[in-house]
Amino acid sequence: MFKKNTAVTGFVFGLVSATDGSAITSDTVTGYYLLDGGTQGTVTGSPVHEGNGQWSVNLLAAEMNGDVVGLIFTHTSAINASFTIKTTTKLVSELNDVAATDIVSSGAITTSGGAVSNVTTVATTTTNTDMRGTDSALLAASAPSNFGDLSITASTGLVDITQAAADKAWGTTTRVLTANTNLNDPTAATIADAVWDEALSGHTTGGTAGKAVLQTKEGTVSVESTVNDASATTTSFVTALTEATSSHYSNVSLVFIDGTLVGQSRPILSYDGTTKTITLEEALTEAPANGDGFIIKTDHVHPISEITADMDANSTQLAAIVADTNELQTDITNGGRVDLLIDGIKAKTDSLTFTLAGDVDANIQSIGDVTDTLDRIERAVKGNVLCTVGSGSSATSIVTSACDPAGVNADQFKGRILTFAKDTTTTALRGQATDITASTAASTPVLTVSTMVASPVSGDTFTIT
């Protein structure tokens, strides 16, 4: 409680960082005051840091001369600390004790040792500004109508805040935190535990990490349960499963997740939906204990007995496969049919000759049942003339530097066709063919030809056919 128009010594307030909530302990703090909604003024006193983000400032009487005083303290890095104070004209400590005899007579108020011990009902009272109750007591006239609804915790003396009151406070547009000394910052371990203990079933929004983890779990684990059998064996035990359909969990894998069998996995041979009994195909290394946990996976496996039964049902086909395999092995062995066939092929390939590495020598005996084919080809080839171009040739005149066979008579090659080789020097002449209109009488004749697309150069080669 503050008295109007009375100076205040050591008004205390707290400042915390607007960035991370840490205590503000240095630099300049400026205070402002507002009296009854008037013009704002600057607090004369300079705030002083007392420690741990608590500051104090002295307020002048003029700065408290209002029925409602608004104070705000600012710092460049802090959340503003704001206060609204309703002043009073007289403090309780300034009231005078009143003796019983000063109020009424005839025993309406009984005193003992100078203090009031009993007050009887008084029909009529008169105004007395000196009248007061127990020190610091709240006068009923100034209490709000719902004051009796407040709940106070006896051990701490703190007023319990209702949910409605909290919602109203946090629902306001502007809130100012004046200190963080009573905030319980959770540790990293507490936050991590809360995240990992969060139930996956509530995370159903597509594209979120929670939904992805839920989908991974649902695609891997069908159900988690425990052994509910004090007499479990290595191949059969009652479970705490709730599934009522028999064979629902048949032909899937069961994996123990705790107890002495942790990590062991076995295919489920059968499941009894009435008794909740699981029977395994293969025995565990030891019987599970009552309460041991396990998961049933979403895979599909075939028990050995089922595989064996299928093999027995197809024994005739398997026997035939085995017989064929044995026959093939006999044929492959030395002297067998396959071995003899391979030997015959090898004898033929060994007779092949390779004058040029990688090229099989060919001996053509006939083509199309014509037995003198080779003679005909040889004769045709021998009629060709192979020539090389010399210097001084043009598009209509070819000077040769070599011919095989060599020229002898004039016009010896007239009327024949010459064709340049595919790899001749002049690119434009590769594959070019032209007719010979005249030739000189020389071993390396000059050939007159129909106009070609380009002039040949020394080293170009061609064939006369």
Describe the protein's architecture and organization.
- The chain is of the alpha+beta class.
- It has four domains: 1-110 and 173-185, Immunoglobulin-like (Sandwich), CATH 2.60.40; 221-307; 314-361, no CATH class; 378-464, Beta Barrel (Thrombin, subunit H), CATH 2.40.10.
- The protein contains seven helices and 23 strands.
- The chain has helices at 163-170, 188-196, 209-218, 304-313, 315-332, 337-350, 373-382; strands at residues 8-14, 30-35, 41-42, 48-51, 54-59, 68-74, 81-86, 109-112, 115-119, 151-152, 159-160, 221-226, 236-238, 253-256, 265-272, 277-280, 293-297, 385-389, 397-404, 417-420, 433-439, 446-449, 461-464.
- The strands form six sheets. Strands 12-17-14-15-16-13 form a six-stranded antiparallel sheet, with no helix packed on it. It has a six-stranded antiparallel barrel with strand order 18-19-22-21-20-23. The chain has a four-stranded antiparallel sheet with strand order 3-2-6-7, with no helix packed on it.
- Strand 4 (48-51) and strand 5 (54-59) form a beta hairpin.
- The protein starts with 7 loop residues before the first strand and ends with a strand.
